[in-house]
Automatic annotation (TrEMBL):
This is Uncharacterized protein. It comes from Parathermosynechococcus lividus PCC 6715. It comes from the Bacteria.
Length: 116
C-alpha cells in the first residue's frame, strides 16, 4: 500500500503503526482519504495540520508540525478510524465507548490540498 500512496507525491512519515501522514511544503491543509486496492476513494473534509489520537476509548486532537505531533488538546468523544490487521474502519464514539462501526476498508492516508 505504501508504494501506491507514494505515487500520489506524498511525503510519508509514520506517526504510529498503521497510520500514514501526508505533507507537502506548498500547503498546511490536509484531509483523510480512504485507499481501496491502491486507488483513492472517499476523502473527508479538509483540516489544517491536525490529527486525532485514540487511547482508552477517548480521543484528542493533536497539531502536526513537520511530520511530528506537537501540542495535543483535551480528550473527547466523537468519531475515529480504527486500524487492525491491515484494515481500517470508521467508528462512532458515544460516552467514551465505541458504538456503531462501519465496514472495513483497505487503507487510509492524509492527502494535502494540492493533490487533487
Amino acid at each position: 500500500m505504501l508504494a501506491h500512496v507514494l505515487l500520489l507525491n506524498l511525503t510519508i512519515a509514520p506517526l504510529w503503526p498503521g497510520t500514514l501522514y501526508g505533507h507537502t511544503a506548498q500547503t498546511h491543509t490536509y484531509r483523510y482519504c480512504r485507499v481501496n486496492f491502491g486507488m483513492v476513494s472517499y476523502c473527508g473534509r479538509w483540516f489544517t495540520g491536525k490529527t486525532v489520537l485514540w487511547d482508552r476509548n477517548a480521543y484528542r486532537t493533536c497539531h502536526v508540525f513537520n511530520g511530528r505531533l506537537s501540542y495535543c488538546g483535551a480528550w473527547f468523544t466523537g468519531e475515529t478510524v480504527i486500524w487492525a490487521n491491515n484494515a481500517y474502519r470508521t467508528c462512532h464514539i458515544f460516552n467514551g465507548r465505541l458504538s456503531y462501526c462501519g465496514q472495513r476498508f483497505s487503507g487510509e492516508a492524509i492527502l494535502s490540498e494540492g493533490q487533487f
